[in-house]
């Protein structure tokens, strides 16, 4: 049963309605805006379990990760209120909410999004390094926005400083640039922080712990999640400030928040060579602002042991003075009373010690562990892991664009050019899925060249010309020409191949064949030319014959056709083997004798109409040429002159008007 | 991508071109100059490894005809980010072209020790010698900090400038340029001990210099000595930057690339503009960021940086000591540093052969190329009696499919398996993240199949925990963490 709806908004919030009976639409869960404004957040809490955000940029995978996280944290509504994507187009984006689906609005401009969602106070900005400056500056114009995470790497340092200057003056918290973001277990996760779902479950990020961390590196923040989970009751909140020289907020900004937050009991700081931000934390400890225990380490201690300067992965990780080296930082932090391990490898042990001390003192009371939630695995990921399979709706056996290089029937496109296999070679790969001998490719090319055009007067060209002159586009003009190809126009190829092959295979002698056809009152397709004759041969036919005789291993069909021609020309001089007939029988020879096809395959291809394909492909060249020619000549709309049409109309019997349909009276045609 | 040092010649070209063109932040005391600076005279000479030194010098005479001017005197010096060249005897002053040529010939391509670093001299700069009266040398330095840009200035420039932090007058220009100090403020803070007569000229210059600094997104700029010779009525001055060190923000290429390029184009340097037979994206050559002195990019390093430039993933390789025993193949910008730290703190800093990382979800093929390059370098070096150590490490990936990237590593391992055994290479693996179980299982299986000396760990092991295990004797037996079992 479909759920009752009001104003199109589904009101049930408990899950899909009715057992398996609804349409796909019923499986979509919709969330309405909160009925009353939320109470203001406390100063120290950047995020909570009702935080709502915008994601700037089209990042469906990251958004899905955030929604999955929200779901296993048992949030009532998703943390993502909407997506801002200025290149727009789409109005909604379909996401999963647990096993059901939900729709997220997609906005093309910020003003609109902000007006619609007054409960949003943070943005995850995925804009590129080129556009992140303008978008962030724009976002900061809205007083509603209190924090922005900037993911992009490679933001120019001047622009980053301008952003952080404005942010500071407006009291906005910037996380990043060049970061993965941050996470508040059980409440909110920025973008891709924490990795995939299995890692979030492994590091117990679905429920809060007591350890708050701030790290420079985004990649290492995931390592911290793991270390903290293994050596304490878990992460309370974690922020990666980003590896650039000028992060929007630094260690001290977040550590001061953790100091204020009664639920953060223990602080972990992972610093790095470069910059002086660790010293601000040291000062705050010295002046008594920070009193909570801190476990810290600055990575990059090896830098001073190298002979030349090495730029590490992060833009900011380069020491410009002794003070900025990791070794001096570690020593200064230790001197200030921070728990600093001897090496980073010893950090887990130090953390475990400090934690168990706090438990002993009663500062931290470990909570009973909730049951780890389950989240359905994503189809694409499960497939990548090889856990599931499903029958494919389509099969393709000729080309593959998924890998490093485009493949034609298994042949990389670079080899196609390296081996200079030509159009004929490409056709043999794509049409027949195999390499044919070189002469075969050249023969195919020859056919294309010979069939490319046959003057403006033939039906196909005429149609194309008329359509072009009616002002239509290339494709319409080309197609209107191609549509004339069939049993009468251009179809001689197929017909000739069929008749000649049938006769040959039945063992009819050429004379018997001609006689049978005459008895049946049938013309032999491929025989006869308007003007050419035995004494005035068609040069195109001569070219094909010569090539085939010289290159093909055998050409029994051609020999047969020539014998037929001898019979027919003895009756009338212009009943020669024409170019269509010649190409057709030679093509049959090719299929049968080149060694690449079995007899059945050769038969099959001919039945599929491959010869017609050859004509269509070749003639397209000419039809496009006619289109371009007419355009170039700027010819106007064509109208056929009246005097070139014989009008023969039926005269209607009198009293026809008013008769019922079909009973208008007799229609007579008088000649 | 970050703040990167540039060649002295490039820095000078940019200043010379943009000094009159960059929009000043506030009006300066002098009227804007009606003409632009003439093209700067910077003869840049590069001596490749197999270069014919004489040939390069002769060719320079055609490219830079002013070298052959009669009675002209020149300065010659290597231009390879070497600090304090004067003190290392790497500065030839007041030489004729013949003398300068001889001086360069003697040094070009030769190994040179500068303090602790040894490197070949390959890039030289020759420019006109500027004779100047006493008391016209200054020192100026602009550097960027979080809140703004510091301008440091003293009236005593030159080689013996001494401790500028102590001596120089300093002003912080806030990031918000609407708060740019007034001319009076600049003069009263920076030009304390400079005669009043040249104040206007200097303020004009400093303001313009700062405008270029902003407009072309420098992150560091030091000119020492800066020579300012005012004209008779002190309404303008001849300014020469005799020595210069600068860094540009490489990430700003998309904003400033055009400006950097045009200043370094042949037109701006007074050279004939070659007939365009190649389409380039800007009006000049793209900016080049040279490797620090003493660390020429090897073929392998260039190969990896080329590979890096072609993909969205990140592939980095720096060879520190090609004969080192300890090699790393680590995923992730942070984790790679942690590994280098761990190796250094275990006492193997001198034995650490490379720093590098691959991250940002590279494909199997990219990982294969990267791994092959590292393995190739490792196995090309002579064998070591104690064998070698290879760390295939990494943190907990965020979204990289570990099994996929490990396929690339495994492919590379397979190719060189016999040599790995021959060189007695211990392989230590630690990695986690999406699908790590599969990745670790595969690599372990290959290790057993090829009889490699391999130890494999997952997320239970600390990110760089395998380093002390491998390098500190006796540590392995005490370690409680079990190797990855493959289930």
TrEMBL record, chain A:
TM regions (residue ranges): none
BP terms from Gene Ontology: acetyl-CoA biosynthetic process; fatty acid biosynthetic process
InterPro entries, alphabetized: Cit_synth/succinyl-CoA_lig_AS (IPR017440), Citrate_synth-like_lrg_a-sub (IPR016142), Citrate_synth-like_sm_a-sub (IPR016143), Citrate_synthase (IPR002020), Citrate_synthase_sf (IPR036969), Citrt_syn/SCS-alpha_CS (IPR033847), CoA-bd (IPR003781), NAD(P)-bd_dom_sf (IPR036291)
The UniProt record lists the keyword Acyltransferase: yes
Lineage: superkingdom: Eukaryota
CDD domains documented for this protein: CCL_ACL-C
Its EC number(s): 2.3.3.8
Assembly description: Composed of two subunits.
Name of the protein described by the UniProt record: ATP citrate synthase
From TrEMBL, chain B:
Gene Ontology cellular component list: cytoplasm
A single BP term in Gene Ontology: lipid metabolic process
Keyword Acyltransferase listed: yes
EC number: 2.3.3.8
Boundaries of every ATP-citrate synthase citrate-binding domain copy: 295-471
Residue span, ATP-citrate synthase ATP-grasp domain: 2-260
SUPFAM superfamilies noted in UniProt: Glutathione synthetase ATP-binding domain-like, Succinyl-CoA synthetase domains
Cellular localization per UniProt: Cytoplasm
One Pfam family linked to the record: Citrate_bind
GO molecular function: ATP binding; ATP citrate synthase activity; lyase activity
Superkingdom as given in the UniProt entry: Eukaryota
Sorted UniProt keywords: Acyltransferase, ATP-binding, Cytoplasm, Lipid biosynthesis, Lipid metabolism, Lyase, Nucleotide-binding, Phosphoprotein, Transferase
Enzyme class: transferase
Chief place where the protein resides: cytoplasm
InterPro entries: Citrate-bd (IPR032263), Citrate_synth_N (IPR056749), Succinyl-CoA_synth-like (IPR016102)
Entry similarity comment: In the C-terminal section; belongs to the succinate/malate CoA ligase alpha subunit family. In the N-terminal section; belongs to the succinate/malate CoA ligase beta subunit family.
Protein name: ATP citrate synthase
């Amino acid at each position: 049963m479909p759920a009752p709806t009001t104003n199109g908004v589904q009101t049930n919030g408990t899950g899909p309605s009715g057992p398996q009976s609804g349409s796909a639409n019923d499986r979509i869960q919709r969330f309405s805006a909160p009925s009353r404004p939320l109470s203001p957040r406390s100063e120290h809490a950047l995020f909570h379990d009702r935080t709502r955000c915008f994601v700037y940029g089209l990042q469906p995978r990251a958004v899905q990760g955030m929604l999955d996280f929200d779901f296993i944290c048992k949030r009532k509504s998703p943390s993502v209120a909407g997506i801002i994507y200025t290149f727009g187009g789409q109005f909604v984006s379909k996401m999963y909410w647990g096993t059901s689906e939900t729709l997220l609005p997609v906005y093309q401009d910020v003003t609109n999004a902000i007006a619609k969602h007054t409960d949003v106070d943070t943005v995850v900005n995925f804009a590129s390094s080129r556009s992140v400056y303008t978008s962030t500056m724009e976002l900061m114009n809205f007083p509603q926005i209190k924090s922005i995470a900037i993911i992009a790497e490679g933001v120019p340092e001047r622009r980053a400083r301008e952003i952080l200057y404005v942010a500071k003056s407006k009291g906005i918290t910037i996380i990043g640039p060049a970061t993965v973001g941050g996470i508040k277990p059980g409440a909110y996760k920025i973008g891709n922080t924490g990795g995939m779902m299995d890692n979030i479950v492994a590091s117990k990020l679905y429920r809060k712990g007591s350890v708050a961390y701030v790290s420079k590196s985004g990649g290492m923040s995931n390592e911290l999640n793991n270390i903290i989970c293994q050596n304490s009751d878990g992460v309370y909140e974690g922020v990666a400030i980003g590896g650039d020289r000028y992060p929007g907020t630094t260690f001290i900004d977040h550590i001061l928040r953790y100091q204020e937050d009664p639920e953060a009991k223990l602080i972990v700081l992972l610093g790095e060579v470069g910059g002086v931000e660790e010293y601000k934390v040291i000062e705050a400890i010295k002046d008594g602002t920070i009193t909570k225990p801190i476990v810290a380490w600055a990575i990059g201690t090896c830098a001073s042991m190298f002979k030349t300067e090495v730029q590490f992965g992060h833009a900011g990780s380069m020491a410009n003075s002794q003070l900025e080296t990791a070794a001096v930082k570690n020593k200064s932090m230790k001197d200030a009373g921070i728990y600093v391990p001897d090496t980073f490898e010893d950090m887990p042990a130090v953390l475990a010690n400090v934690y168990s001390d706090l438990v002993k003192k009663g500062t931290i009371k470990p909570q009973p562990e909730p049951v780890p939630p389950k989240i359905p695995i994503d189809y694409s990921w499960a497939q990548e892991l090889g856990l599931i399979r499903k029958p494919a709706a389509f099969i393709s056996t000729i080309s593959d664009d998924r890998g490093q290089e485009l493949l034609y029937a298994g042949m990389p496109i670079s080899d196609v050019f390296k081996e200079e296999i030509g159009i004929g070679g490409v056709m043999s790969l794509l049409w027949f899925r195999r390499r044919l001998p070189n002469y075969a490719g050249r023969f195919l090319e020859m056919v294309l060249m010979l069939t490319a055009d046959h003057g403006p007067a033939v039906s196909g060209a005429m149609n194309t010309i008329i359509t072009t002159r009616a002002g239509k586009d290339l494709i319409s003009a080309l197609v209107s020409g191609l549509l004339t190809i069939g049993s009468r126009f251009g179809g001689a190829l197929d017909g000739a191949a069929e008749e000649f092959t049938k006769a040959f295979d039945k063992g009819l002698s050429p004379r018997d064949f001609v006689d049978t056809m005459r008895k049946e009152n049938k013309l032999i397709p491929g025989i006869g030319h308007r003007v050419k004759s035995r004494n005035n041969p068609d040069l195109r036919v001569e070219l094909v014959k010569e090539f085939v005789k010289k290159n093909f291993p055998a050409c029994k069909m051609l020999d047969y056709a020539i014998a037929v021609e001898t019979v027919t020309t003895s009756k009338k001089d212009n009943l020669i083997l024409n170019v269509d007939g010649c190409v057709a029988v030679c093509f049959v020879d090719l299929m049968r004798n080149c060694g690449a096809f079995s007899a059945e395959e050769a038969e099959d291809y001919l039945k599929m109409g491959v010869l017609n394909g050859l004509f269509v492909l070749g003639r397209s060249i000419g039809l496009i040429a006619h289109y371009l020619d007419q355009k170039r000549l700027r010819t106007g709309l064509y109208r056929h002159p009246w005097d070139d049409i014989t009008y023969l109309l039926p005269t209607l019997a009198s009293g026809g008007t008013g008769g019922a349909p079909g009973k208008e009276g007799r229609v007579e045609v008088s000649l | 991508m970050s703040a990167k040092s540039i060649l002295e010649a490039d820095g000078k070209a940019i200043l010379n071109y943009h000094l009159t063109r960059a929009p000043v932040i506030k009006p300066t005391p002098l009227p804007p100059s009606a003409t632009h600076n003439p093209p700067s005279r910077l003869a840049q000479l590069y001596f490749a490894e197999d270069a014919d030194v004489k040939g390069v010098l002769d060719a320079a005479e055609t490219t830079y005809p002013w070298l052959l001017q009669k009675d002209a005197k020149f300065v010659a010096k290597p231009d390879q980010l070497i600090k304090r060249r004067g003190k290392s005897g790497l500065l030839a002053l007041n030489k004729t072209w013949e003398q300068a040529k001889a001086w360069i010939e003697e040094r070009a391509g030769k190994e040179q020790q500068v303090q602790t670093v040894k490197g070949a001299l390959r890039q030289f700069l020759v420019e006109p010698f500027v004779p100047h009266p006493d008391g016209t040398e200054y020192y100026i330095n602009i550097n960027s900090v979080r809140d703004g840009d510091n301008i440091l200035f003293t009236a005593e420039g030159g080689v013996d400038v001494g401790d500028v932090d102590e001596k120089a007058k300093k002003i912080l220009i806030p990031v918000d340029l609407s708060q740019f100090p007034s001319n009076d403020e600049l003069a009263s803070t920076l030009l304390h001990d400079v005669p009043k007569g040249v104040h206007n000229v200097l303020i004009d210059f400093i303001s313009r210099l700062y405008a270029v600094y902003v407009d072309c997104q420098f992150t560091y700029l030091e000119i020492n000595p800066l020579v300012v010779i005012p004209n008779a009525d002190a309404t303008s001055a001849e300014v020469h930057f005799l020595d210069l060190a600068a860094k540009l923000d490489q990430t700003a290429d998309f904003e400033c690339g055009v400006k950097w390029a045009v200043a370094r184009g042949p037109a701006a340097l007074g050279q004939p503009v070659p007939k365009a037979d190649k389409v380039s994206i800007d009006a000049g050559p793209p900016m080049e960021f040279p490797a620090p002195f003493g660390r020429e990019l090897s073929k392998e390093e260039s190969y990896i940086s080329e590979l890096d430039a072609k993909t969205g993933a990140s592939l980095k390789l720096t060879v520190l000591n090609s004969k080192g025993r300890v090699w790393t193949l680590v995923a992730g910008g942070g984790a790679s540093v942690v590994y280098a730290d761990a190796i250094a703190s275990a006492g193997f800093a001198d034995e650490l052969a490379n720093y590098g990382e691959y991250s940002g979800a590279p494909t199997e093929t990219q990982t294969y190329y990267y791994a092959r390059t590292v393995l190739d370098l490792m196995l090309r070096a002579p064998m070591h009696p104690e064998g070698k150590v290879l760390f295939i490490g990494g943190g907990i990936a965020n979204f990289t499919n570990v099994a996929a990237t490990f396929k690339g590593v495994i492919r590379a391992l397979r190719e060189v398996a016999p040599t790995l055994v021959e060189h007695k290479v211990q392989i230590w693996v630690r990695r986690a993240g999406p699908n790590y179980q599969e990745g670790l299982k595969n690599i372990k299986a290959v290790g057993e199949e090829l009889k490699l000396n391999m130890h494999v760990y997952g997320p239970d092991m600390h990110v760089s925990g395998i380093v002390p295990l491998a390098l500190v004797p006796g540590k392995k037996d005490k370690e409680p963490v079990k190797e990855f079992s493959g289930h």
